[in-house]
Write a structure and sequence with these properties.
single chain; alpha+beta; 5-stranded antiparallel beta sheet; globular
Length: 250
């Protein structure tokens, strides 16, 4: 009888982590950052049918990079968790922290299980508060760990370079137009330092806007409103874009 091939637990986990990281790196990066009135999600996504960003609950948004079918399953599970908890207890009991803990348990269990491959996904769960100090952003890598982020975060293929740029350029109190432009600039930087052009039609943009009178704070920014924000020079253009909120589809 031949001797079974032995792989140490440390090596096995390292191999699984490398496999997941390579899968995530093949996807396009995305950016989540705070601005004065909420949190903006920005990513390059030429598909109009497959979304990287989604609403989970009233004040909670979801962003993901990696394999679509895997993070879509996680998104659906998060919506079900939030709906059940809000219905059973109270809507205020549904929080980004609680949702992040649920995702962490799921991802951690899958990552440590030898019976299935690790998920090739990296998630961001964000909740907009009544004030900027109440905003919460959590990043969840493939292994189920939770990273509490502040200000800005990038996930996906080129996330390290993008995060470095955002750390240098992001500041508190930015307008939506300023935050959107910064995110696009960060996403458009190639590894060699050059800038490429990302047209508005290739961008997916959404916000959690604390100033919305509705209980649901999630809104997609599309069409003319997105183009005007990208070209905005001041608060007047942004206020004009906000006036269109009621006519844009969520």
């Amino acid at each position: 009888m031949s001797t079974p091939f032995y792989v140490s637990p440390q090596q096995a986990m390292a191999d699984r982590a490398e496999y997941a990281r390579k899968g995530i790196a093949r996807g396009r990066s995305l950016v989540v950052l705070q601005y004065a009135d909420g949190i903006v999600f920005v990513g390059e996504n030429p598909s109009r049918a497959l979304h990287k960003f989604s609403e989970i609950y009233d004040r909670i948004g979801f962003a993901a990079a990696g394999k679509y079918n895997e993070y879509e399953n996680l998104r659906i599970g998060g919506v079900r968790y939030a709906d059940l908890r809000g219905y059973t207890y109270d809507r205020d009991d549904v929080t980004a922290r609680g949702l992040a803990n649920v995702y962490a348990q799921t991802l951690g269990t899958i990552f440590s299980s030898a019976a299935e491959k690790p998920y090739e996904v990296e998630l961001v769960v964000a909740e907009v508060g009544e004030t900027p100090e109440g905003d919460q952003i959590y990043r969840l890598p493939h292994d189920g760990s939770i990273v509490d982020e502040h200000g800005s975060v990038a996930v996906g293929g080129n996330s390290e370079q993008i995060s470095t740029y955002l750390d240098q350029q992001h500041r508190e109190g930015m307008s939506l137009a300023e935050g959107l432009k910064l995110a696009v600039q960060a996403l458009s930087r190639d590894t060699n330092g050059t800038q490429r052009d990302i047209p508005a039609e290739r961008l997916e943009v959404a916000v959690l806007d604390r100033t919305r009178p509705q209980a649901r704070k999630f809104k997609r920014i599309v069409g003319r409103q997105l183009s005007r924000l990208l070209e905005a020079d001041g608060a007047a253009t942004e206020a004009e874009s906000s006036a269109e909120e009621g006519s844009d589809e969520e």
